[in-house]
Amino acid sequence: MTARHKKITIYQVADEAGVAISTVSRVLNNSPNVSEPTKMKVQEAIKRLNFRPQVNARNLASRKPQMLAVAVPSFTTPFYNEILKGVKDQIQEMDLDIIIYNTGSRDPESAVADFFDRGTTDALIVISIELRESVHRQIQASGVPTVLVGTSHPDYNYYELNDREGGFMAGEHLIRQGFTRPGMILPVLETRVSMDRKNGFIAALKANDVEIDEKLFVRGESTKHAGFTEEAGYEAILHFREIGEFPDAIFCINDTQAIGALHAIRELGMKVPDDVALMGYDNIKLTRYLDLTTLDQQMHRVGQLATQRLSQLISDPDSTLEQVVMQPSLIERGSTRRVTKDP
């Protein structure tokens, strides 16, 4: 792979020169603690590879962190925005700059690997991205303090979100409200988050002997943000109309879908909750003004906690792992209020 296709990293320079990464960093920093022959080997490797060092590469020898990278599938959706706000609010207390790396929703794991190929960072927060073994090895080799959010791995500090429990709570809530034919709007692309929420929801129905009708588990067509969008929620409601069957209550995979679903329901001349109950997931700010029942994940707080933990890791890299599973809480509003209809 040539430099015009992919940026050369400090790791490749170290391999080319046959030295450690820290040695390359010392050469870049003009450290006197490098022998002249070794310095020449590194400089020759830099010239052959046409390596252009980044600021953080120059700081590896001093180990003074300067740049925090946040890898996230999207920074335009309300869910990720809330986590990023938490990171931003907390990072003001740390002497770090921040870069947000948008991996996209299609293959975020590969995007994280590409990010490391382009150069290292001083600290890393990974949001809602599973770590493949190859990416895990890259992070471990770099020694970069890393905290995971919305996913877990036995070797990392993480703040996992209990999506299965949230799905179960959604199902139980609708059943307690007296709904007997609940359905669900799913994203176009199956993700671990969507599967956990779906499986939790189905588990609640089974635990309460409620019939599961697969026709009432539908998807929109929009692939934007993997189908966690207003468009997907809107399209899914039209699918119910096409099949000629509506559930009496709908659990949407997130609040953004629920907002699109609510718009479609109203366009069809139906009312929430009179004709169909509706609930979402995430408790984004807009839901309180739409009177939408949802599940709260404390996204802003999670962003703060992850950043606080990263600060502790920078100060004490060998500290005990902190692995936390955050429990959702039900926010009950009018959109799932059972309406007694006249006989």
Quick summary:
The protein has 343 residues and is an alpha/beta fold.
Topology:
Blueprint: H1 10-17, H2 21-28, H3 36-49, H4 55-58, E1 67-72, H5 78-91, E2 97-102, H6 108-117, E3 123-127, H7 133-142, E4 146-149, E5 157-161, H8 163-176, E6 182-186, H9 192-207, E7 217-219, H10 230-243, E8 249-252, H11 255-267, E9 277-279, H12 286-289, E10 294-296, H13 299-315, E11 323-326, E12 329-331
Helix pairs in contact: 1-2, 1-3, 5-13, 6-7, 8-9, 10-11
How many E-type strands? 12
Helix amount: 40-55%
Number of domains: 3
Q: If you consult CATH, what is the topology of the largest domain?
A: Rossmann fold
Structural features, described:
The chain is an alpha/beta fold. The chain has three domains: 10-58, 434 Repressor (Amino-terminal Domain) (Orthogonal Bundle), CATH 1.10.260.40; 67-162 and 299-329, Response regulator (Rossmann fold, 3-Layer(aba) Sandwich), CATH 3.40.50.2300; 163-296 and 331-336, Response regulator (Rossmann fold), CATH 3.40.50.2300. Helix content is 43%, strand content 15%. The protein contains 13 helices and twelve strands. It has a six-stranded parallel sheet with strand order 2-1-3-4-5-11, sandwiched between helices. α5 (78-91) links the parallel β1 and β2 (97-102). α5 crosses α13 (299-315) and α6 runs parallel beside α7. It is elongated, with a radius of gyration of 24 Å. The model is unreliable at 1-5 and 55-62 (pLDDT under 50).
List key phrases describing it:
Rossmann fold; alpha/beta; 4-stranded parallel β-sheet; disordered N terminus; 434 Repressor (Amino-terminal Domain); single chain; 3 domains; 6-stranded parallel β-sheet; 343 residues; 13 helices
